[in-house]
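User: C-alpha coordinates for this one?
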Amino acid sequence: MKYEPVIGLEVHAELLTKSKMFCGCEVVDSITAKPNRTICPTCTGQPGALPVLNRKAVELAVRVGLALECEIHTESIFARKNYFYPDLPKGYQISQYDQPLATDGKIRIETEVSPRRHGDAGPKDVRIRRVHLEEDTGKLSHADGYSFIDYNRSGVPLLEIVTEPDLSSPEEVKAYASKLRAILRYLDVNSGDMEKGVIRFEANVSVRAAGSDQFNTRTEIKNLNSFRALTLGTEYEIKRQSEIYERGGTVEQETLGFNDATGKTYSQRGKESAHDYRYFPEPDIPPLVLEQSWIDSIRASLPELPEAKTSRFIEQYELKPQEARLLTSEKALADYFEGVVSKSKSPAKTVSSWIAGEFMRYLNDLSIDVTNIPLPAEDFAKLIDMVTDKTISGNSGKVVLGEMFRNGGKAEEIVKAKNLAQVSDAGFIQETVAKILNDNPKEVEQYLAGKESILQWLMGQVARATKGKADPTVARELLVKSLEAKRK
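Assistant:
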Protein backbone atom coordinates (compact mmCIF):
# COMPACT_ATOMS: atom_id res chain seq x y z
CA MET A 1 0.00 0.00 0.00
CA LYS A 2 1.20 3.53 -0.74
CA TYR A 3 1.25 5.98 2.16
CA GLU A 4 1.26 9.78 2.22
CA PRO A 5 2.61 11.99 5.02
CA VAL A 6 0.59 14.53 6.98
CA ILE A 7 2.87 17.03 8.71
CA GLY A 8 2.42 20.10 10.87
CA LEU A 9 5.20 22.27 12.28
CA GLU A 10 5.63 24.09 15.55
CA VAL A 11 8.37 26.71 15.52
CA HIS A 12 9.81 28.35 18.62
CA ALA A 13 11.66 31.60 17.92
CA GLU A 14 13.39 33.77 20.54
CA LEU A 15 12.53 37.44 20.12
CA LEU A 16 15.28 40.07 19.78
CA THR A 17 14.59 42.07 22.93
CA LYS A 18 17.16 43.53 25.32
CA SER A 19 15.43 42.14 28.41
CA LYS A 20 13.48 39.01 29.29
CA MET A 21 9.76 38.42 28.94
CA PHE A 22 8.62 39.12 32.49
CA CYS A 23 11.62 40.72 34.22
CA GLY A 24 14.40 43.23 33.56
CA CYS A 25 17.24 40.70 33.23
CA GLU A 26 19.41 41.19 30.14
CA VAL A 27 19.09 38.71 27.28
CA VAL A 28 22.55 37.25 26.58
CA ASP A 29 24.03 34.71 24.17
CA SER A 30 23.28 31.33 25.74
CA ILE A 31 26.36 29.81 24.07
CA THR A 32 29.09 32.29 25.02
CA ALA A 33 27.82 33.89 28.26
CA LYS A 34 28.89 32.49 31.62
CA PRO A 35 26.11 30.37 33.16
CA ASN A 36 23.57 31.86 35.57
CA ARG A 37 24.80 35.46 35.30
CA THR A 38 21.60 37.17 34.11
CA ILE A 39 19.01 35.83 36.52
CA CYS A 40 16.75 37.28 39.21
CA PRO A 41 14.00 36.12 41.59
CA THR A 42 11.36 36.44 38.83
CA CYS A 43 13.01 34.38 36.08
CA THR A 44 14.17 31.74 38.59
CA GLY A 45 10.69 31.40 40.12
CA GLN A 46 11.39 32.60 43.66
CA PRO A 47 8.39 32.90 46.02
CA GLY A 48 6.68 36.28 45.92
CA ALA A 49 8.28 37.44 42.64
CA LEU A 50 5.76 38.90 40.20
CA PRO A 51 6.00 39.02 36.38
CA VAL A 52 5.72 42.25 34.37
CA LEU A 53 5.06 41.92 30.62
CA ASN A 54 7.70 43.13 28.15
CA ARG A 55 6.03 45.65 25.77
CA LYS A 56 8.73 45.22 23.10
CA ALA A 57 8.14 41.47 22.97
CA VAL A 58 4.45 42.09 22.32
CA GLU A 59 5.27 44.57 19.55
CA LEU A 60 7.61 42.08 17.83
CA ALA A 61 5.01 39.32 18.14
CA VAL A 62 2.38 41.56 16.53
CA ARG A 63 4.81 42.29 13.67
CA VAL A 64 5.14 38.58 13.02
CA GLY A 65 1.41 37.98 13.22
CA LEU A 66 0.73 40.76 10.72
CA ALA A 67 3.45 39.54 8.35
CA LEU A 68 1.87 36.07 8.41
CA GLU A 69 -1.53 37.59 7.55
CA CYS A 70 -3.01 36.56 10.91
CA GLU A 71 -5.93 38.08 12.74
CA ILE A 72 -4.45 39.99 15.68
CA HIS A 73 -6.73 39.71 18.70
CA THR A 74 -7.12 42.89 20.69
CA GLU A 75 -7.47 40.77 23.83
CA SER A 76 -5.45 37.66 24.67
CA ILE A 77 -4.80 35.72 27.85
CA PHE A 78 -1.66 34.28 29.44
CA ALA A 79 -1.89 30.88 31.10
CA ARG A 80 0.19 28.58 33.27
CA LYS A 81 1.39 25.45 31.51
CA ASN A 82 2.25 23.06 34.33
CA TYR A 83 4.99 20.46 34.01
CA PHE A 84 8.01 19.53 36.05
CA TYR A 85 11.46 19.53 34.52
CA PRO A 86 14.79 20.78 35.92
CA ASP A 87 15.13 23.62 33.39
CA LEU A 88 11.71 25.05 34.36
CA PRO A 89 12.35 26.76 37.70
CA LYS A 90 8.74 27.67 38.56
CA GLY A 91 7.34 24.23 37.75
CA TYR A 92 5.18 25.91 35.11
CA GLN A 93 5.71 27.97 31.96
CA ILE A 94 3.84 31.20 31.33
CA SER A 95 2.35 30.80 27.86
CA GLN A 96 -0.86 31.43 25.93
CA TYR A 97 -3.37 28.68 25.32
CA ASP A 98 -7.03 29.08 24.41
CA GLN A 99 -6.86 32.84 23.73
CA PRO A 100 -3.62 33.44 21.79
CA LEU A 101 -2.34 36.71 20.38
CA ALA A 102 -2.94 35.84 16.70
CA THR A 103 -4.66 33.17 14.62
CA ASP A 104 -5.59 32.14 11.08
CA GLY A 105 -2.61 33.21 8.98
CA LYS A 106 -0.73 31.68 6.05
CA ILE A 107 2.64 31.39 4.32
CA ARG A 108 3.01 30.66 0.61
CA ILE A 109 5.80 28.20 -0.19
CA GLU A 110 7.27 26.99 -3.48
CA THR A 111 8.77 23.54 -4.11
CA GLU A 112 10.38 22.09 -7.22
CA VAL A 113 10.01 18.72 -8.91
CA SER A 114 12.22 16.06 -7.32
CA PRO A 115 12.37 12.25 -7.66
CA ARG A 116 12.34 12.01 -3.85
CA ARG A 117 9.17 14.05 -3.42
CA HIS A 118 6.01 12.73 -1.85
CA GLY A 119 3.72 15.65 -2.70
CA ASP A 120 3.18 17.89 -5.71
CA ALA A 121 5.56 20.65 -6.76
CA GLY A 122 4.65 24.31 -7.21
CA PRO A 123 3.15 27.03 -4.98
CA LYS A 124 1.14 26.12 -1.91
CA ASP A 125 -0.41 28.04 0.98
CA VAL A 126 0.37 26.66 4.43
CA ARG A 127 -2.17 27.75 7.02
CA ILE A 128 -0.98 29.20 10.33
CA ARG A 129 -3.20 28.05 13.19
CA ARG A 130 -1.85 30.33 15.91
CA VAL A 131 0.97 32.65 16.95
CA HIS A 132 1.42 33.11 20.67
CA LEU A 133 3.83 34.45 23.26
CA GLU A 134 5.54 32.51 26.01
CA GLU A 135 8.80 32.38 27.97
CA ASP A 136 11.76 30.15 27.18
CA THR A 137 13.10 27.52 29.56
CA GLY A 138 16.59 27.18 31.00
CA LYS A 139 19.33 25.13 29.37
CA LEU A 140 20.16 21.63 30.62
CA SER A 141 23.46 19.87 29.86
CA HIS A 142 25.03 16.62 31.04
CA ALA A 143 28.66 15.60 31.60
CA ASP A 144 30.57 13.06 33.70
CA GLY A 145 27.44 11.72 35.35
CA TYR A 146 26.24 15.17 36.43
CA SER A 147 23.49 17.45 35.12
CA PHE A 148 24.00 21.22 34.90
CA ILE A 149 21.36 23.93 34.56
CA ASP A 150 21.95 27.39 33.10
CA TYR A 151 19.04 29.75 33.77
CA ASN A 152 20.35 32.62 31.60
CA ARG A 153 17.87 31.61 28.90
CA SER A 154 15.01 31.10 31.34
CA GLY A 155 12.37 33.76 30.73
CA VAL A 156 13.67 34.93 27.35
CA PRO A 157 10.71 36.02 25.15
CA LEU A 158 9.65 33.18 22.89
CA LEU A 159 7.20 33.16 20.00
CA GLU A 160 5.49 29.90 19.04
CA ILE A 161 4.12 29.60 15.50
CA VAL A 162 1.93 26.57 14.79
CA THR A 163 0.74 25.40 11.38
CA GLU A 164 -2.23 23.32 10.40
CA PRO A 165 -1.25 19.81 9.16
CA ASP A 166 -0.90 21.12 5.59
CA LEU A 167 2.59 19.87 4.74
CA SER A 168 2.93 16.66 2.76
CA SER A 169 6.64 16.09 2.14
CA PRO A 170 10.07 16.78 3.67
CA GLU A 171 10.67 19.21 0.79
CA GLU A 172 7.61 21.22 1.77
CA VAL A 173 8.69 21.16 5.42
CA LYS A 174 12.09 22.59 4.49
CA ALA A 175 10.54 25.17 2.17
CA TYR A 176 8.19 26.34 4.94
CA ALA A 177 10.93 26.48 7.58
CA SER A 178 13.25 28.40 5.23
CA LYS A 179 10.54 30.88 4.28
CA LEU A 180 9.49 31.46 7.90
CA ARG A 181 13.10 31.97 9.00
CA ALA A 182 13.59 34.50 6.20
CA ILE A 183 10.45 36.40 7.25
CA LEU A 184 11.61 36.56 10.88
CA ARG A 185 14.99 37.91 9.76
CA TYR A 186 13.36 40.44 7.40
CA LEU A 187 11.28 41.66 10.35
CA ASP A 188 14.39 41.84 12.56
CA VAL A 189 12.63 39.90 15.31
CA ASN A 190 14.93 36.83 15.35
CA SER A 191 18.55 36.35 14.28
CA GLY A 192 17.86 32.96 12.67
CA ASP A 193 21.06 31.48 14.21
CA MET A 194 19.83 27.89 14.36
CA GLU A 195 23.12 26.57 15.73
CA LYS A 196 22.57 28.79 18.79
CA GLY A 197 19.08 27.40 19.34
CA VAL A 198 17.30 30.75 18.95
CA ILE A 199 14.93 29.15 16.45
CA ARG A 200 13.84 25.53 16.93
CA PHE A 201 11.54 23.33 14.87
CA GLU A 202 9.22 20.56 16.03
CA ALA A 203 7.60 18.35 13.41
CA ASN A 204 4.32 16.53 14.03
CA VAL A 205 4.32 13.59 11.62
CA SER A 206 1.77 10.95 10.67
CA VAL A 207 1.14 8.86 7.55
CA ARG A 208 -2.05 7.54 6.02
CA ALA A 209 -3.15 5.57 2.99
CA ALA A 210 -2.69 7.67 -0.14
CA GLY A 211 -5.92 9.47 -1.00
CA SER A 212 -7.43 9.03 2.47
CA ASP A 213 -8.70 12.03 4.43
CA GLN A 214 -8.41 10.49 7.90
CA PHE A 215 -5.79 11.51 10.46
CA ASN A 216 -3.73 8.74 12.01
CA THR A 217 -1.63 8.74 15.17
CA ARG A 218 1.13 11.32 15.04
CA THR A 219 4.52 11.62 16.66
CA GLU A 220 6.36 14.83 17.53
CA ILE A 221 10.07 15.26 16.76
CA LYS A 222 11.41 17.83 19.23
CA ASN A 223 14.08 20.53 19.08
CA LEU A 224 15.36 20.27 15.51
CA ASN A 225 17.78 23.17 15.06
CA SER A 226 18.95 22.80 11.45
CA PHE A 227 17.28 22.38 8.07
CA ARG A 228 19.26 19.17 7.63
CA ALA A 229 18.00 17.66 10.88
CA LEU A 230 14.45 18.80 10.10
CA THR A 231 14.50 17.22 6.64
CA LEU A 232 16.24 13.98 7.62
CA GLY A 233 14.19 13.53 10.79
CA THR A 234 10.95 13.99 8.89
CA GLU A 235 12.07 11.61 6.12
CA TYR A 236 13.04 8.94 8.62
CA GLU A 237 9.80 9.21 10.58
CA ILE A 238 7.70 8.92 7.41
CA LYS A 239 9.61 5.77 6.45
CA ARG A 240 9.43 4.32 9.98
CA GLN A 241 5.69 4.80 10.34
CA SER A 242 4.99 3.47 6.83
CA GLU A 243 6.94 0.30 7.61
CA ILE A 244 5.03 -0.17 10.89
CA TYR A 245 1.69 -0.04 9.05
CA GLU A 246 3.01 -2.37 6.34
CA ARG A 247 3.75 -4.94 9.07
CA GLY A 248 0.25 -4.54 10.47
CA GLY A 249 1.47 -2.70 13.58
CA THR A 250 0.32 0.48 15.27
CA VAL A 251 2.14 3.78 15.70
CA GLU A 252 2.44 5.00 19.29
CA GLN A 253 1.78 8.65 20.07
CA GLU A 254 5.05 9.84 21.58
CA THR A 255 7.64 12.59 21.70
CA LEU A 256 10.82 11.81 19.76
CA GLY A 257 14.35 13.10 19.51
CA PHE A 258 16.53 12.97 16.41
CA ASN A 259 20.08 11.59 16.39
CA ASP A 260 22.20 13.42 13.79
CA ALA A 261 24.85 10.71 13.84
CA THR A 262 22.51 7.80 13.06
CA GLY A 263 19.90 9.76 11.09
CA LYS A 264 17.16 8.12 13.17
CA THR A 265 14.49 9.26 15.60
CA TYR A 266 14.32 7.83 19.12
CA SER A 267 11.67 7.80 21.83
CA GLN A 268 11.89 10.38 24.62
CA ARG A 269 8.53 10.09 26.36
CA GLY A 270 4.82 9.59 25.77
CA LYS A 271 3.21 12.55 24.03
CA GLU A 272 1.35 14.83 26.40
CA SER A 273 -2.11 16.19 25.68
CA ALA A 274 -3.38 19.63 26.68
CA HIS A 275 -5.08 18.29 29.82
CA ASP A 276 -1.74 16.87 31.01
CA TYR A 277 -0.45 20.42 31.38
CA ARG A 278 -3.41 21.55 33.51
CA TYR A 279 -3.65 24.94 31.81
CA PHE A 280 -5.34 27.72 33.74
CA PRO A 281 -5.24 31.56 33.40
CA GLU A 282 -2.09 33.16 34.85
CA PRO A 283 -3.39 34.96 37.96
CA ASP A 284 -0.48 37.43 38.12
CA ILE A 285 -0.91 38.83 34.59
CA PRO A 286 -4.12 40.60 33.53
CA PRO A 287 -5.53 40.09 30.03
CA LEU A 288 -3.35 41.60 27.31
CA VAL A 289 -5.46 44.33 25.69
CA LEU A 290 -4.16 46.04 22.53
CA GLU A 291 -5.47 49.21 20.92
CA GLN A 292 -6.34 48.83 17.24
CA SER A 293 -4.52 52.08 16.47
CA TRP A 294 -1.29 50.60 17.88
CA ILE A 295 -1.73 47.46 15.75
CA ASP A 296 -2.32 49.65 12.69
CA SER A 297 0.84 51.66 13.37
CA ILE A 298 2.87 48.43 13.55
CA ARG A 299 1.31 47.27 10.27
CA ALA A 300 2.35 50.55 8.62
CA SER A 301 5.96 50.00 9.74
CA LEU A 302 6.35 46.53 8.21
CA PRO A 303 9.17 46.22 5.66
CA GLU A 304 8.84 44.77 2.17
CA LEU A 305 8.66 41.02 2.81
CA PRO A 306 10.23 38.16 0.78
CA GLU A 307 7.09 37.38 -1.26
CA ALA A 308 6.58 40.97 -2.36
CA LYS A 309 10.29 41.55 -2.94
CA THR A 310 10.52 38.43 -5.12
CA SER A 311 7.65 39.63 -7.30
CA ARG A 312 9.23 43.07 -7.62
CA PHE A 313 12.64 41.64 -8.56
CA ILE A 314 11.03 39.52 -11.29
CA GLU A 315 9.21 42.53 -12.74
CA GLN A 316 11.74 45.31 -12.15
CA TYR A 317 14.95 43.44 -12.96
CA GLU A 318 13.51 40.87 -15.40
CA LEU A 319 14.85 37.94 -13.38
CA LYS A 320 13.64 34.36 -13.50
CA PRO A 321 11.62 33.26 -10.44
CA GLN A 322 14.40 30.99 -9.13
CA GLU A 323 16.93 33.82 -9.50
CA ALA A 324 14.68 36.24 -7.62
CA ARG A 325 13.96 33.71 -4.86
CA LEU A 326 17.68 33.16 -4.26
CA LEU A 327 18.36 36.88 -3.98
CA THR A 328 15.40 37.50 -1.65
CA SER A 329 16.07 34.48 0.57
CA GLU A 330 17.92 36.85 2.91
CA LYS A 331 17.16 40.55 3.36
CA ALA A 332 20.87 41.34 3.57
CA LEU A 333 21.50 39.57 0.25
CA ALA A 334 18.58 41.35 -1.45
CA ASP A 335 19.79 44.72 -0.18
CA TYR A 336 23.34 43.94 -1.33
CA PHE A 337 22.13 42.97 -4.80
CA GLU A 338 20.23 46.23 -5.19
CA GLY A 339 23.24 48.12 -3.88
CA VAL A 340 25.47 46.56 -6.56
CA VAL A 341 22.87 47.19 -9.30
CA SER A 342 22.62 50.86 -8.32
CA LYS A 343 26.41 51.28 -8.66
CA SER A 344 26.91 49.15 -11.78
CA LYS A 345 26.58 49.92 -15.50
CA SER A 346 25.99 46.23 -16.19
CA PRO A 347 22.49 44.68 -16.55
CA ALA A 348 20.80 43.46 -13.36
CA LYS A 349 20.75 39.91 -14.77
CA THR A 350 24.56 40.04 -15.06
CA VAL A 351 24.84 41.11 -11.42
CA SER A 352 22.43 38.33 -10.43
CA SER A 353 24.53 35.74 -12.28
CA TRP A 354 27.71 36.86 -10.51
CA ILE A 355 26.05 36.74 -7.09
CA ALA A 356 24.47 33.32 -7.71
CA GLY A 357 27.79 31.92 -8.96
CA GLU A 358 31.25 32.87 -7.71
CA PHE A 359 30.02 35.29 -5.06
CA MET A 360 27.89 32.68 -3.23
CA ARG A 361 30.68 30.12 -3.63
CA TYR A 362 33.13 32.37 -1.78
CA LEU A 363 30.56 33.13 0.93
CA ASN A 364 30.11 29.39 1.50
CA ASP A 365 33.78 28.41 1.20
CA LEU A 366 34.90 31.14 3.61
CA SER A 367 31.89 30.65 5.97
CA ILE A 368 30.87 34.30 5.66
CA ASP A 369 27.37 35.26 6.80
CA VAL A 370 25.42 37.40 4.32
CA THR A 371 24.97 40.01 7.05
CA ASN A 372 28.74 40.48 7.17
CA ILE A 373 29.82 40.67 3.50
CA PRO A 374 33.38 42.09 3.44
CA LEU A 375 33.15 43.38 -0.15
CA PRO A 376 31.55 46.84 -0.55
CA ALA A 377 28.77 46.87 -3.16
CA GLU A 378 30.50 49.69 -5.07
CA ASP A 379 33.73 47.65 -5.38
CA PHE A 380 31.90 44.54 -6.59
CA ALA A 381 29.98 46.65 -9.11
CA LYS A 382 33.29 48.00 -10.49
CA LEU A 383 34.66 44.47 -10.90
CA ILE A 384 31.55 43.29 -12.76
CA ASP A 385 31.74 46.33 -15.06
CA MET A 386 35.39 45.57 -15.85
CA VAL A 387 34.33 42.14 -17.09
CA THR A 388 31.33 43.52 -18.96
CA ASP A 389 33.39 46.14 -20.83
CA LYS A 390 36.11 43.52 -21.49
CA THR A 391 38.80 45.26 -19.47
CA ILE A 392 39.41 41.78 -18.01
CA SER A 393 38.16 38.32 -18.94
CA GLY A 394 35.50 36.43 -17.01
CA ASN A 395 38.13 34.01 -15.66
CA SER A 396 40.33 36.89 -14.54
CA GLY A 397 37.28 38.43 -12.88
CA LYS A 398 36.89 35.28 -10.79
CA VAL A 399 40.54 35.51 -9.75
CA VAL A 400 40.12 39.15 -8.77
CA LEU A 401 36.92 38.39 -6.81
CA GLY A 402 38.72 35.71 -4.81
CA GLU A 403 41.52 38.14 -3.98
CA MET A 404 39.02 40.81 -2.92
CA PHE A 405 37.24 38.34 -0.62
CA ARG A 406 40.42 37.04 0.99
CA ASN A 407 42.60 40.11 1.23
CA GLY A 408 40.45 43.10 0.27
CA GLY A 409 41.56 45.77 -2.16
CA LYS A 410 40.13 47.47 -5.22
CA ALA A 411 39.55 45.59 -8.47
CA GLU A 412 41.65 48.02 -10.55
CA GLU A 413 44.62 47.70 -8.19
CA ILE A 414 44.48 43.89 -8.19
CA VAL A 415 44.20 43.76 -12.01
CA LYS A 416 47.25 46.02 -12.34
CA ALA A 417 49.28 44.16 -9.71
CA LYS A 418 48.57 40.75 -11.28
CA ASN A 419 48.79 42.01 -14.87
CA LEU A 420 45.32 40.64 -15.69
CA ALA A 421 44.15 43.31 -18.15
CA GLN A 422 42.52 41.69 -21.17
CA VAL A 423 44.26 42.02 -24.54
CA SER A 424 42.12 42.77 -27.60
CA ASP A 425 45.05 43.53 -29.92
CA ALA A 426 44.38 41.37 -32.99
CA GLY A 427 48.04 41.29 -33.97
CA PHE A 428 49.18 39.89 -30.60
CA ILE A 429 46.36 37.32 -30.52
CA GLN A 430 46.96 36.30 -34.15
CA GLU A 431 50.58 35.46 -33.35
CA THR A 432 49.44 33.23 -30.51
CA VAL A 433 46.78 31.56 -32.68
CA ALA A 434 49.30 30.83 -35.43
CA LYS A 435 51.68 29.23 -32.96
CA ILE A 436 48.92 27.09 -31.41
CA LEU A 437 47.83 25.80 -34.82
CA ASN A 438 51.40 25.06 -35.88
CA ASP A 439 52.10 23.17 -32.64
CA ASN A 440 48.93 21.05 -32.87
CA PRO A 441 48.60 19.73 -36.46
CA LYS A 442 46.69 16.60 -35.36
CA GLU A 443 43.94 18.64 -33.72
CA VAL A 444 43.79 20.95 -36.73
CA GLU A 445 43.22 17.95 -39.00
CA GLN A 446 40.46 16.67 -36.69
CA TYR A 447 38.69 20.04 -36.85
CA LEU A 448 38.97 20.19 -40.64
CA ALA A 449 37.58 16.63 -40.80
CA GLY A 450 34.40 17.81 -39.10
CA LYS A 451 35.15 17.50 -35.35
CA GLU A 452 34.15 21.05 -34.48
CA SER A 453 34.32 20.40 -30.73
CA ILE A 454 38.10 20.70 -31.12
CA LEU A 455 37.59 24.46 -31.44
CA GLN A 456 36.86 24.73 -27.73
CA TRP A 457 40.06 22.84 -26.91
CA LEU A 458 42.05 25.19 -29.15
CA MET A 459 40.42 28.16 -27.43
CA GLY A 460 41.66 26.73 -24.15
CA GLN A 461 45.21 26.57 -25.53
CA VAL A 462 45.03 30.22 -26.57
CA ALA A 463 43.75 31.19 -23.12
CA ARG A 464 46.55 29.21 -21.47
CA ALA A 465 49.23 30.72 -23.72
CA THR A 466 48.03 34.26 -23.04
CA LYS A 467 47.40 33.56 -19.34
CA GLY A 468 43.72 34.27 -19.84
CA LYS A 469 44.29 37.79 -21.11
CA ALA A 470 43.20 37.28 -24.71
CA ASP A 471 39.75 38.65 -25.53
CA PRO A 472 37.81 35.39 -26.13
CA THR A 473 35.59 36.95 -28.80
CA VAL A 474 38.59 38.16 -30.80
CA ALA A 475 40.47 34.91 -30.19
CA ARG A 476 37.57 32.78 -31.41
CA GLU A 477 37.09 34.90 -34.51
CA LEU A 478 40.79 34.67 -35.42
CA LEU A 479 40.91 30.93 -34.68
CA VAL A 480 37.97 30.17 -36.97
CA LYS A 481 39.34 32.43 -39.69
CA SER A 482 42.79 30.78 -39.53
CA LEU A 483 41.34 27.26 -39.51
CA GLU A 484 39.06 27.94 -42.43
CA ALA A 485 41.98 29.39 -44.37
CA LYS A 486 43.68 25.98 -44.10
CA ARG A 487 40.80 24.35 -46.00
CA LYS A 488 41.68 26.25 -49.16
